[in-house]
């Protein structure tokens, strides 16, 4: 009962991020998957131990590579490219 984690603070979601897209970032992304992507991004998929406003993060989603950055409570998708 006294176990503590070194990475996760408390496991709770501390509010959602506001998600926006740079110009042309979502242009070739399938419209039917866009809401799911926004939902995932709003939950802040960054590693919990890194907070760097200049860093570009990325992850694969639905056959695409999603690149984004976070400043405060605002997440901006900077690039979406198709995985070949």
Distance between the termini: 47 Å
Proportion of beta-strand residues: 25-35%
Proportion of residues in helical segments? 10-25%
Number of strands: 4
Description:
- This protein is an alpha+beta fold.
- The protein contains one helix and four strands.
- The protein has one helix at 31-42; strands at 18-21, 57-61, 64-71, 74-82.
- Strands 1-4-3-2 form a four-stranded mixed β-sheet, covered by helices on one side.
- A hairpin with a 2-residue loop joins strand 3 and strand 4 (74-82).
- The longest helix has 12 residues, at 31-42.
- The protein is globular.
- 12% of the residues are buried.
- The model has no long low-confidence stretch (mean pLDDT 87).
Q: Helices and strands in order, then pairings?
A:
Layout: E1 18-21, H1 31-42, E2 57-61, E3 64-71, E4 74-82
Parallel strand pairs: 1-4
Antiparallel strand pairs: 2-3, 3-4
Please supply descriptive tags for the structure shown above.
1 helix; 4 strands; alpha+beta; single chain; 84 residues; 14% helix; globular; 31% strand; four-stranded mixed sheet
Quick synopsis:
By secondary structure, the chain is an alpha+beta fold. Helix content is 14%, strand content 31%.
